[in-house]
Amino acid sequence: MIRRNLPFATVAVIVLVAAPLLLEPFRLSLLAKYLCYAIVALGIGLAWGQGGMLTLGQGVFFGLGGYSMAMHLKLTEGGGLPDFMVWSGVEELPALWVPFANPVFALGMAVLGPVAIAAILGTLVFRQRVRGAYFAILTQALAAAMVILLVGQQGLTGGTNGMTNFFDLFGRDLAEDSTQRGLYLVVASVLGVLYLATRQLVNSRYGRLLVAVRDGEDRVRFLGYDPALVKTVTFAASAGMAGLAGALFVPVVGIISPALLGVVPSLELVVAVAVGGRHVLAGAVLGAVVMGYAQTAFSEQFADGWLYLQGALFILVMTLAPKGIIGVAERLRRARTT
Amino acid sequence: MLELRDVQVVFDGFRALDGVDLTVPDGELRFLIGPNGAGKTTLIDVITGLTRPAAGSVRFAGHDLAGRKEHQIVRLGVGRTFQTSVVFEELTVIENLDLAAGFRKPLWSLARRRRGVSETVAEALARTGLEELAERSAGVLSHGQRQWLEIGMLLAQRPKLLLLDEPVAGMSKDERERTGELLTRIADDHTVVVVEHDMEFLRRHASTVTVLHEGRVLVEGSVDQVSADPRVQEVYLGRKASDAVGNRP
Ligand SMILES: Nc1ncnc2c1ncn2[C@@H]1O[C@H](COP(=O)(O)OP(=O)(O)O)[C@@H](O)[C@H]1O
Ligand SMILES: [Mg+2]
Prior knowledge:
The structure holds two protein chains of two kinds.
Chain A: H1 2-22, H2 25-50, H3 58-76, H4 83-87, H5 103-127, H6 132-152, H7 154-157, E1 163-164, E2 168-169, E3 172-173, H8 177-203, H9 205-221, H10 227-253, E4 255-256, H11 263-276, H12 281-301, H13 305-320, H14 324-337
Antiparallel strand pairs in A: 1-4, 2-3
Helix pairs in contact in A: 1-8, 2-8, 2-10, 2-11, 2-12, 3-5, 3-10, 5-10, 8-9, 8-10, 9-10, 11-12, 11-13, 11-14, 12-14
Chain B: E1 2-11, E2 14-24, E3 29-33, H1 40-47, E4 55-60, E5 63-64, H2 70-75, E6 78-80, H3 93-101, H4 119-128, H5 143-156, E7 161-165, H6 173-189, E8 191-195, H7 199-205, E9 208-213, E10 216-222, H8 223-228, H9 230-235, H10 241-246
Parallel strand pairs in B: 3-8, 3-9, 6-7, 7-8
Antiparallel strand pairs in B: 1-2, 1-4, 4-5, 9-10
Helix pairs in contact in B: 3-4, 3-5, 4-5
The structure holds adenosine-5'-diphosphate (ADP) and magnesium ion (MG).
Adenosine-5'-diphosphate binds at residues 11, 14, 16, 34, 36-42 of chain B.
């Protein structure tokens, strides 16, 4: 028990204690952003790595969470209509916005909205036995459609620019370092708790069933299970994680816009999971943090190079180390002990 | 009791099953033989919901199976294996069996970790003689062991009716013998339908045989009756039925 949890405990101490003490506020905020992506990646690790559902549309759920939170933040600023509505000539708060003034509603929608949409989509799609590349393409199309929808509804969503200029969160000043440090700790804790819960699920009988569905969906039917239900539940869970991540991302980074949740960001997260190692949850989390950091480090120097580097890295991993960074680490450790 | 009446299956105009009538009483060990392409696998597919019949009825234990989903039919107590065995290679032998045993539990109750070995799983392990391999991953099993694991998974489901599609194909003589004994013991408390070609195997273990040919039931009877039947001999191209049947893969 202790042995098994030692790596997790070590990482938890570094992330929760060492990082806030050692990193300057700007860097800490960046790390918080990567950890938000890691929460999405965790969901991808569950749905794709364990369940075999290649979802290229997690940005949709991330976006739903992000927009829910952004709407709430815009409404608690005081001073009437949100800024972007004024600029686009909206005179009265749209009815859709009204309930988001309530923080519980906004947070609930951030998680339950994505869960509900994934559950409906899953029920429709998995029952028809849509899978593999068809499922991937479908989710990608969803991401594209989401962007079009958001851009088209300028007065409701802020269009291409999305929403920004958030000032306070539940009564705290977002510009304060202490608020940002607190946010960081919240994000890290949420990630830790979700990681443990997901790991528990993966190690449970349900986890075995999920792997069985991934490797032999048709066979699983003849074991008396309904694979469509198993997949739907898993997909919905991963969507919920993405939604929560989106809601945390907005106060951390201070912006939400269609560019942050379209086809490309959705793909980037899948690439990150593949690079980290999709077959274990830790690989997914690690991949998101590493790729997030690499993107920042790289973009500071060559703005456009990142996309190419990312593509190259993906191909490299897929051909040379299909189990990603974690797979390489496991191989090295085994080579050392034998 | 399993009861098929005038079952027809059509694939793109081709009649794979052309009016099959079949009755298997409870507790029987029934062998199903016939040349390749006779429709044996298709027959099992129809019973288990993998293929929808164009006409006819399939009833089991008072239930009409037509139109039910695969997993629903399993829940009525009908289990099957496939011609090419499919076990979950990334899971251990125990995990495979445990998965098979767990389908009646509600989904949420699976969220807990497996602790120890349930009685059902232990029994399936013992019956198939896989105890020593319990903790090994199914990917390392030999062909014969995989077939036994499949049968074990079937037993763990506690079905009333077992449908086995060529369970001894590709097995060594010893393995066939063990499998035959296993099937006989299983038939003590289950209804079993086995698709098999090997005449020697049939002679040793079969009581009643149904011969399928071009989507129809040709003959039904004891092994001796069936192999002496001129129509069966004709189906196997005029050669002695025992030779012809015995040599098929
Ligand atoms: N899915 C399918 N589509 C088209 N034809 C099929 C399909 N499945 C089986 N058949 C055909 O139906 C006939 C019976 O096949 P099958 O039941 O597998 O025979 P058996 O198991 O007795 O060797 C064969 O001619 C086969 O080619
Ligand atoms: Mg066959």
